[in-house]
Amino acid sequence: MRRQTRFQFLTPAGVSLATDRVAETDAEPETEERLVVEDLSPHEEVVFLLHTAAETEHALMVQYLYAAWSIDPGGARASWRPELLQIAREEMAHLASVQNLLRFVGGPLNLEREDVPFRTAWYPFPFELEPLSRGSLARYVAAEMPARPPIDRRLLARIRRDAGCHGRRQPLNRVGALYARLLELFQDRSNALAPFFRPGTASSGQARPEWWRADVGRGPLYLRTITSKEEALTLLEDVARQGEGYLAGGRTHFDTFLRMYDEWVAREVDRDEKHHDAGTRHAIYPVARNPYTGQDGEGSAITAPEAFAWAVCFNQHYRLLLVWLSHSLLTLDDAELARGLALRAFGEMLAIADIGQLLTHLPLARDRGRARAGAPFELPYTLALPDRPEDLWAMELDLVQQARARLAALPAVEGSDRIKASLGATLERAQRFIEHHGGRP
Amino acid sequence: MSVLGFPRLYLRGRISWDPIVSNNGPPDYDAVNATVGFRPGETAGQFRQRHIEALRGDWNYFGTHRAAFESVVITGGERAAHRFEPDDPLVGAPVELEGKLVDLDPYGVHTSQIFFDQLVVGAGARPRLTGKPLARMSSRWLTFRRNLGRLPIAGGAGATFQAVFPRESLDLDHAGRSPLLDAFRDRLKERRARGLMLRMSVYATLYFRNGVENRLPPAASVAELKAHYQADRAVSNPAYGAVVGVIGLWRDDEVGAVPGGRLLIPSEGAVAPVAFEVDEPGKLLSLDLTAAVPELNVELDKQDFGALEVGWRSSAPEGQELRLADLPAEAYARPDYDARSGIIDLDLSAAQIRTVAHEPGALFLRSKAGASQPFDLEERVLTATPELANVYLDPGTSWRLPVVVQERGQRVARPLQLLVATYDLDGDLTGQRVIPVEEGRALVEGVAENPGLFTLAYFPFGGTPPEPPRGMDSGLISTGAFTAFRVLPADVELGAVPDAELTWDLVYRSVLMGYDAIAPRMSHVIRLDHGDAVATFARRFLEVTDPANFESGRYMPVTRDLSAGKRTLLRRFCQRALVGSPGANEAAAVPAPLPAAPRAAPPPSVKISDLAARRLATATGEDRGPEGG
């Protein structure tokens, strides 16, 4: 059994900041929480927290994507859809930034993610693929909240109540606390980290912003290569501020989610605007919570044959995306190849966007009324890659050929012709790419 | 009404400018044909290398064109005259505006535009105002004497931009918690309110600010930038300047594209016009000195012209002057300027306000007799205001452009005419014509014939036609009424290439290679020299090159010089790549060696008149219409 690292978000007085306790009162916490990790050296703690950050960013990205796709682009909340998608992109850049920080401190990369039903105490809130709702917005606000949110106390209390974790006795943590601790550790006042710094990885091993369509210094897609402690600190600051910043100009995640939550609540309570209530209901597709394709799971089984086939197809492309991403980040000595692999990952991002949106229109099950499916985002049995290059290329070719073989059998539904053609083109380019670089096994 | 009416919101902060300047002249760029000056056989990579080696005055080869408010906040507001509200919840709220700075004429200085999608005042769950602009903003009242502190490059320049936001595009949240926002909500219900107007003055631009105003890799000089480029670091180097502005109501009788209404025109000391408005019932004269008084230094201290006199010069009897009010120097100096964005409200008597509103004559604003620094502006009685500031056209497109003509801010019944003068790419006067003004409006019409750039300037008159300036001089640029036009090439033959010949090589060589060379930052977003990348992002290309998105900050190419034929070729390639058509996908899957340039360097800029014989026979099926779709 894997040894569990223990840590908690505590006030200095030792009171847990789990949402269930805080939500019992309207009062703001009097003191800022601090993150306490036990029994690890500074380097181990940095790697551990960066792994936690990577899994958190990955999970948030997936949940925000799912929520964005649940918004009807022709409905009353249409303008939120691109805003949520943009935040998901920014989380993707954060994920890549965390990988660069791991490279810089000589830690192993990590593209894992929290999954249903597994839960560990350090994630912001229990992972849940769910349509956008008052409750999910409250959770997003709470997760991205600064330590001392400059907002009305009653509003803060309502957000905490709506976040709704107390019913499940699950804590709700701020992502900012994680980054605050990382910033503290990277100050490295005792020089304990310095021997682990690997500035050379900036030119070999770290994700380069121009390969990932990111910016160098101004956002909104924060991703930089890191050669020094100072650069690590400024990158961490940028990532943290983009999440929890407020009233500082520029759109931050906290600001955006707070505005959405506020508007949602305002429309619900304004009795003079009943038409808006109806608009709100119809603005969000009735997609499933935690849809899955497996034999058993915790959530909503996708059983309608059309949705099932497309959901399996989604999982294949999600897996391909993670494989290309890993392969690119693990390619150290061939910049052109690493950049080409990044392009393959982008191809799969576009593919899962197509399929994910299609799934929000397909019935979840034959007997479930209006309920629709959704992107299952099921992780494969492993994210480990073969360590011999020829085996890795062979595995990728196998995955691509599997996905191509399934294409023809995908059931035709409204809008699927264009998507199938586009998937076919993406996979064909991928196969040619593998044949060009990796050869046939 | 406009920004000089009530309510008003004042804003102030920094603005960043990140354009490329590599297309600012021949031989690297031919603005008429919208082509890059490759040497024979040169690749984009070789062009980039050559450009980086030379670099000269290019301070931003890897610019993004981004123009954005940086730390701009609401400094105050007024619901009525003399009721400055420093404590409204909107005060201190961030103001967001992010777009792209693009010169219609990349060689010139007077056609800057900001394409953007949204203005946001406020944040989160606080009082908040959001608006979508009717169209891009265009620079006017350009001066190079705004800052007298000898700031490098264009640091001495100042310009005014204006945008309008239709009522139906506005969202006002939590207005009940902000008296200022609540006042806007009430006034927007009035029949004559069309929406909101933003007018802002930008000035005191500072260069090489990386590491000071942002976290981009520092570069204190062109030499240091060059070192970055040579080390394969594509560092953008945005400039940062000051911005002050005001948000007010946009009324149904006001042109949105450029500042209009009654104007004082500078002759001495002042560096930009002063718009003014008369509120007869309120007995109030409001003057917009946002752009008129220069700063002395980088600290932005205002030049001291002493007390100023506001007066009226009657034309019946001719030349008789009436003193209306005195303005102490403090009224236009900081900190008042910072707090109220340079807008000054003066209470007049009923008789005075009647005179300014109705009598024949002209308002003036000047320094007192004997002042060591003279300052003098006088009203331009007849004004022309075009409804469009900058226009892109495809060859063969017919266009009609209304120009509003007013006398002391009113449409007049007496016969008036409009002299329309044409200036070519070099700013030389090449023609003039006179058209009638009917019910306060003249309709300028034409057909876009040849690719090229020209400017039309407007001079209303009632008797003898005026003599237009021989060239687009600084006076015309800083105080004149004009519209700049860019007629793009048609490139019909490229749009009509048969499917069998539609290859990646052709698309790159004919369309993308030029951008890869002249605006290399684009290749950091999507690699333009890589068929696989272009095919992978085919849908993105289709979206951003859609003519329907021309006014959006997301439109590509940001330089807006893509001809209809080239756009058709690129979009056809992308459509084919999207569905895996033979040819597009195969060619794109594995990048072939890059092709060399197709032809020798084009001739340096060609004047419109020289192109007369080159009229293209037909336009493609993707014409944008008179204003770029």
Attribute tags:
heterodimer, A: 441 residues, mainly alpha, two-stranded antiparallel ribbon, two-stranded parallel ribbon, 13 helices, 4 strands, B: 629 residues, eight-stranded antiparallel β-barrel, eight-stranded antiparallel β-sheet, 33% strand
Structural notes for this entry:
The complex is a heterodimer of chains A (441) and B (629). Chain A is an all-alpha fold and 441 residues long. Chain A has 13 helices and four strands. Chain A has a two-stranded antiparallel ribbon. In chain A, strands 3-4 form a two-stranded parallel sheet. In chain A, helix 4 (134-143) runs antiparallel to helix 8 (253-269) and helix 6 (175-187) packs antiparallel against helix 7 (229-244). The longest helix of chain A is centred in the N-terminal third of the chain and has 28 residues, at 42-69. Chain B has 629 residues and is an alpha+beta fold. Chain B has 13 helices and 28 strands. An eight-stranded antiparallel β-barrel of chain B has the order 1-4-5-6-8-9-11-12. The A-B interface holds A 151-152, 155, 209-210, 213, 216-218, 234, 238, 246-251, 254-255, 258-259, 261-263, 266, 339-340, 343, 346-347, 350, 418, 421-422, 424-426, 428-429, 432-433, 436 and B 66, 69-73, 92-96, 123-125, 128, 173, 210, 214-217, 234-236, 238, 524-527, 530, 532-533, 535-537, 539, 577-580, 585-586, 588-590.
